[in-house]
Write a structure and sequence with these properties.
Layout: E1 3-9, E2 29-30, E3 33-34, H1 35-45, E4 50-55, H2 62-66, E5 75-80, H3 86-95, E6 105-110, E7 113-115, H4 119-128, E8 134-141, E9 148-153, E10 156-162, E11 170-179, H5 195-204, E12 210-214, E13 219-221, H6 225-238, E14 249-250, E15 255-256, E16 261-263, E17 266-267, E18 272-273, E19 278-280, E20 283-284, E21 289-290, E22 295-297, E23 300-301, E24 306-307, E25 312-314, E26 317-318
Parallel strand pairs: 1-4, 1-6, 4-5, 8-12, 14-17, 15-18, 16-19, 17-20, 18-21, 19-22, 20-23, 21-24, 22-25, 23-26
Antiparallel strand pairs: 2-3, 6-11, 7-13, 8-11, 9-10
Helix pairs in contact: 3-5
Length: about 325
């Protein structure tokens, strides 16, 4: 058996604007590395040697940032969708250039996902179950209304329910899949197809079925500035010896005045924060400039945004220079 992986990274990142005006959301940082770099390291640690990155929006940005995978210990190839085709269509397109044998396994990950689950154990569970069409990482939640709820018979999925009303507790789809190459036969070429809404429900009806790998591990969909901020603050707290609720993630190359107060913020490379500025619960894109004495709370600043000295802002989203 050979183990391959596909990372689905074609989304527009519209909920991440203005941070994604010039940067794909999958290359936004968690700590000092892009989201996808964390995924590549996890894949390599699980024994994956070959990864295909399925891109679309801002596709040209990935190769300069990631190279061909040498520093992660794997080979990284790129595909680009000619038009958006959904998660299933993107997977089909990405696999067109791969030579897959029937007993191979394919790890499929959404490119804006951060998960601490045991990927190697997930792969083993798929193989030990007889290599069904798909084995989905499932995790328990108290409120499934924002997720895809999985109806189960043991470890076999019997039905998918997308974002059910009434907020029931249960196991939900956590966005990492181990699939058999035969799953690709259920995806028509060149069409817009969703894995979650079209392909997996179709596979459930077949004898091979779709199964779950259960693990309650830390998981985050980095789809909004708030989620990006939370992931960075969690990483910052992981690297301090005691609980620090006001942790801030200041990335290499940012400049913060020693008299500024910055709490629960993500400050990206090239950003500058002036003297006596006060920032809380905010995300600053690369090259932002915060003037002396400015106050920001709950703000998201795109690349190169500028805030004039003394300006006070709350819950603002900035792409251009702000003036008094």
């Amino acid at each position: 058996m050979s183990l391959h992986a596909v990372i689905l990274a074609g989304g527009y990142g519209s909920r991440m604007m203005p941070l994604t005006t010039r940067t794909p959301k999958h290359l936004l940082p968690i700590g000092d590395e892009p989201v996808i770099a964390h995924q590549l390291r996890r894949l390599a640690a699980a024994g994956v040697a070959s990864v295909t990155l399925a891109t679309a929006h801002h596709a040209e940005a990935f190769l300069p940032a990631l190279g061909h995978g040498e520093r992660f210990g794997l080979h990284l190839r790129y595909t680009r969708e000619p038009e958006p085709r959904g998660t299933g269509g993107a997977l089909k397109h990405a696999c067109a250039g791969l030579t897959l044998h029937p007993d191979d396994a394919l790890v499929v990950i959404n490119g804006d996902l951060v998960s601490d689950h045991d990927l190697a154990a997930h792969v083993r569970a798929h193989v030990h179950a007889g290599a069904p069409l798909a084995t989905i990482h499932a995790r328990p939640v108290d409120d499934a209304s924002a997720f895809g709820l999985l109806h189960l018979d043991g470890d076999r999925i019997t039905r998918f329910e997308e974002k059910p009303a009434g907020a029931p507790a249960g196991f939900v789809n956590a966005g990492t899949y181990v699939v058999s190459p035969s799953l690709l036969d259920l995806i028509p070429a060149g069409e817009v197809v969703s894995l979650e809404r079209d392909v997996f429900p179709r596979a459930v009806a077949l004898d091979e079925g779709v199964r779950v790998y259960r693990e309650d591990a830390r998981f985050a969909d980095i789809g909004t500035p708030a989620a990006l901020l939370a992931a960075n603050l969690a990483l910052a707290r992981d690297h301090v010896p005691s609980d620090r609720p006001n942790a801030t993630s200041v990335l290499l190359g940012a400049q913060v005045s020693p008299t500024a107060r910055v709490e629960r913020c993500l400050v990206m490379p090239g950003a500058q924060i002036g003297a006596d500025a006060v920032l809380t619960d905010s995300v600053l894109g690369p090259g932002c400039v915060i003037g002396d004495g400015a106050h920001l709370e709950g703000c998201v600043l795109g690349d190169g945004a500028r805030v004039s000295p003394g300006l006070r802002l709350a819950d603002a989203v900035l792409e251009v220079e702000e003036r008094r």
